[in-house]
Write a structure and sequence with these properties.
With 180 residues, this protein is an alpha+beta fold. It is 34% helix and 12% strand.
Length: 180
C-alpha cells in the first residue's frame, strides 16, 4: 500500500506501486482537475505540487512519492481565490481551459519560490503547452498574481460560479410570429 498526503488528506492507495500519480489522482481519488494531456511529461496539463515542486503527475509513480505532500488544483483553492486563479480570470487568460489547471499549479509553485519573477523567470518556470496561445496574457497575469500575493495590488473579487438563480428563473418573453 502506498501512502502520502493529497490536499491535506492522508491517502493510502492499494494500486500497483508503478501506477502514475496522474491515474491515482484521477481514477482512485476522483480529482479530475489534473488533466491527462500527452502522457510524456511535455505538455504540463497534469502538473501538481509535490513538496513545493511543480511535477508532471504522468511521469512519477505513486511509489516514488511515498510520504510526500501533493497539492492538486482542487486543493489549491476551492473558491478560486488563489492569486494566480484570480489574476488569470481577471486577465481573461483561460480559453478552452484544458491546460489551465497545470499552468495554475506551475505558477503557484513559482510564486511561492519567487515573489517577483521576471518575464524570463516566468517563461522558464511555465513550460506548459497551451494550444490556444494564451502566452502574451499569461505573463501579464502571473506578474499581476505576484503583485496580489505580495500585497502590492488588490485582488479582483472572485467570480461567481455559474448563473445567478434569479437570472436562471427569469421569464423570457415569448416570441410572436411575424405577421403574414
Amino acid at each position: 500500500m502506498t501512502s502520502f498526503t493529497v490536499n491535506n488528506q492522508p491517502v493510502h492507495y492499494e494500486l500497483d506501486p508503478a501506477t502514475p500519480l496522474l491515474w491515482a489522482l484521477r481514477d482512485a481519488s476522483n480529482l479530475t482537475g489534473t488533466k491527462y494531456g500527452c502522457g510524456t511529461g511535455d505538455c504540463g496539463a497534469c502538473t501538481v505540487d509535490i513538496d513545493g515542486e511543480a511535477v508532471r503527475a504522468c511521469q512519477v509513480s505513486i511509489a516514488a512519492i511515498e510520504g510526500t505532500f501533493v497539492t492538486t488544483i482542487e486543493g489549491l483553492s476551492r473558491d478560486r481565490t488563489h492569486p494566480v486563479q484570480q489574476a488569470l480570470i481577471d486577465a481573461n487568460v483561460p480559453q478552452c481551459g484544458f491546460c489551465i489547471s497545470g499552468i495554475v499549479m506551475a505558477a503557484s509553485v513559482l510564486l511561492r519560490k519567487n515573489r517577483d519573477p521576471s518575464e524570463q523567470e516566468i517563461a522558464d518556470a511555465l513550460t506548459n503547452i497551451c494550444r490556444c496561445g494564451i502566452y502574451p496574457r499569461l505573463a501579464t497575469a502571473i506578474r499581476q498574481a505576484a503583485a496580489i500575493a505580495r500585497g502590492d495590488e488588490t485582488a479582483p473579487p472572485p467570480p461567481r460560479p455559474g448563473i445567478d438563480a434569479a437570472e436562471a428563473a427569469r421569464k423570457v418573453p415569448a416570441l410572436t410570429p411575424p405577421p403574414r
